[in-house]
Amino acid sequence: MSPGDIFILAVRWIHTIAAVAWVGGSLFYLVVLRPVSKKGGSDVAGNSAVANEFRSVVDTAVMVLIITGVVLAFDRLTSKHTDVTYVSVLGVKVALTLWMFWLAGVLQKRRRSRASTSSKVEGSSLAGESGKPSRALSSANLVAIIGIVVFLISDLLQALFEDALKAV
């Protein structure tokens, strides 16, 4: 293995860890934290503290994903084994990822506005006054779903690249 190969391997690993932290954290929120807070097992201040900690994880993951994603895309796009199919699928992955980043930003803004409102109104919950899921929770669902799809597309990209290497 050349030093360049070791560098790309390290970048790929860091990229994957950042994606796992974000998507895995989103799934944990949806499957564990949200149901607990709906049952009243957690107070508003506790939810806020968890949301703030998760926000720092997401912010770090997004920065790492952008930096490592650019390096990995450049590495693959400059390879003589990359074809139009690979580039097209990579474009879909980038578009979905950008949509995920946008949704995460929307979620953050909604949580901040809800936090400032809930500090004025006691008894607010993550689900809202009526008990129905808010639009922010729908966005959280979508972030997790898109994240899972992006993982699938990553595997597809790997398979496309390996098939191109075999054809040589």
3D architecture notes:
The chain is mainly alpha-helical and 168 residues long. The protein has one domain (3-166). 83% of the residues lie in helices and 0% in strands. It has four helices and no strands. It has helices spanning 3-38, 44-77, 84-120, 135-166. α1 runs antiparallel to α4 (135-166) and α2 (44-77) packs antiparallel against α3. Mean pLDDT is 83; it is low at 121-131.
* Strand portion: under 5%
Report the order of strands and helices: HHHH
Uncertain regions spanning at least 5 consecutive residues:
121-131
Please report the number of helical segments.
4
Radius of gyration: 19 Å
Shape: elongated
Number of strands: 0
Our measurement of the CA-to-CA distance between the termini, rounded to an integer number of angstroms, reads: 20 Å
Average pLDDT reading: 83
> What count of structural domains?
1
Largest sheet: none
Helical content class: over 70%
Judged by helices, strands and strand pairing, the structural class is mainly alpha
Lay out the secondary structure.
Layout: H1 3-38, H2 44-77, H3 84-120, H4 135-166
Helix pairs in contact: 1-2, 1-4, 2-3, 3-4
Question: What attributes does this structure have?
Answer:
mainly alpha, 4 helices, elongated, 168 residues
Question: What's a quick, concise take on this entry?
Answer:
With about 170 residues, the protein is mainly α. The protein contains four helices and no strands. The radius of gyration is 19 Å and the shape is elongated.
